[in-house]
Amino acid sequence: MACVAHASLVAPGPCGLRLGRCLRSAPARPQLRPRVQTPASSSSLPSSAPGLTPGTSGNGITSGGAPPPEPTPVRITHDVNVSAVLSPQAVYHKCADLGAYKAALPWWKIVLAGAMAGMYVSLGGMLLLTVGPNCVAMAGDNPGLARYITGAIGFPYALLTILTCGAELFTGNTAVVTAAVYEGKADLRSLAKSWICSYAGNILGAAAGVGLAVASGLLPQLTRGATALAIYKTGAPVGVTLARAIGANWLVCIAVWQCTAAQTYGGKFIACLGPISAFVTIGLEHCIANMFFVPLGILAGADVNMRDFVLRNLIPVTLGNIFAGVVCVATLYSLLYGALGDRIMGKKPATA
Q1: CB under 8 A, 24+ apart: contacts of 312-316
Q2: pTM over 0.85
């Protein structure tokens, strides 16, 4: 036996023996050699081994020495998009497909998703009111920049969330569901269902957003902007408000179109940022946003009542938003790239 005791390890052990003797009596550890295991048959390979098939080794050669079988070729049976932005014609038809999907949803799902959209708009509105209207010094020195900051911070994120996470925004549906009707992918009854249920859901979500703003104690930081917006939005003549509403939803629907065209998340954000910040900076009217701003301003102390809000703002803004989505976006692009243009040119519309 080999002696493995060391001179420094001679202290008495717990059993009264000297540790040196205990170590001296231990046999020497045999030297281990690595074991090389070769598969005896294809059954010795685990079936889940990645990259290996029964009867092959790691270098791709079968146990009998024959090369592996040729891989099965991949057959591509449809177009593969390799562009970051779709063509205008492709965007229109993709929006029509999106509208057909929305029109086919059950009513309760549209209401639920509409409530989510109303809440996302409210959360974006809280951010807008927290930042822009409180930049008082900037507004005095550079009012244009202050207005743009108000437009760029808040609502673009709300629309991006709606379009990427999934929700039903009434103003966007006025364009995409109408496009689906033009292309024969939805009917007027499903269009009415989509519009009514998404509008009702947006009202519920905006009301919940107002309640959340008050219950969370955020009203003091939102008061300056909320009261000013409530007075501004109910003080204009009805015709002016209607025209502002057309411009607002024209830009919102263009943002929906551009976001559909973009195939990356960064591209979708840029697609939302430009048009949405533009309509807020300019001072245009969006009915779902107003469902949050004006009631919140009334609760914050603005000299406005709900009757003025509904008659002087909400109704004309809703009508203007519908006109923009239906005529300015869905109809014009169907004339350019869809069934309406095909009918004028005498072409037979493609079947849905």
Answers
A1: 312/234, 312/236, 312/238, 312/241, 313/233, 313/234, 313/241, 313/285, 314/287, 314/290, 316/238, 316/241, 316/242, 316/245
A2: no
